[in-house]
Amino acid sequence: MVNFFSSNPFWLFLGVVAGALIQAILHWFERHRQANAALKVLQIEIKYNLEQASSYIDEINRQRELLYSGEISPEKAFFPMVGFDYSALGPINNSGYLHTLLGPESLGSVLRFSGHFNNRTGELLYSALQQEASAGRAVSFLLEEKVRAEKLRSRLVPIAKAKKKWFRLSIEMPKQA
After folding, report:
1. 155: number of CA atoms within 13 Å, CB side?
2. 2-25 pLDDT, tens per residue?
């Protein structure tokens, strides 16, 4: 038995097993480091877009008041979508961390937000506003859009404050007060 522990094949086997274990541990740490970085970048982008959404809601409310008072016509109304930025979503999605970290509910909130606050939707909303204006419902349409935007915005706020779980590739939402 003494010869077995002093033989080269035993130490070679032990070295291979130890090397594989070290590689697995380093890979785990690297994946979690990358997930933390991805979450931080995503949250910065979400916070920026939440600020843009607040400005958007204020502008829609301002235009609604101007339409109501007759100071502007529906043709002069606009939906300011150009400030929203989704440049980090693509790379985070390609890395696989978007779905893994957020899970289905939070991912749905992010995708609904990005699907609503973009230039194409702004064009569609403008067309819909013109149709509603011809029926005399422009002010109520803008009110509905404001409510819709506030709802989409409120669903993203918890994601901006979420923390990554320590041993898992997922996030933990803050406790509701």
Report:
1. 17
2. 676 677 888 899 899 999 999 999
Rounded CA separation 131/146 (Å): 18
C-alpha closest to that of 155 among 116, 119, 123: 116
CA separation for the pair 7, 72 (Å, rounded)? 90
Angle at the Cα of 42 (from 26 to 143), degrees rounded to 5?
Answer: 160
Alpha helices for the chain (secondary structure H): 2-5, 8-69, 89-95, 97-116, 119-134, 138-160
In the chain, where the domains are located: 2-172
Question: 90 and 114 in contact (C-beta within 8 Å)?
Answer: no
Residue with tokens 């094949």: 9
Count of C-beta atoms within a 10 Å radius of residue 128? 14
Q: What is the pLDDT of residues 135-150, one digit of tens each?
A: 999 999 999 999 999 9
Tell me the two tokens of residue 96. 């696989």
CA dist., res. 71 & res. 66, Å (int)? 5
User: What is the 3-state secondary structure of 105-129?
Assistant: HHHHHHHHHHHHCCHHHHHHHHHHH
| Run of H or E residues at 171 | strand 171-172
pTM above 0.90, yes or no: no
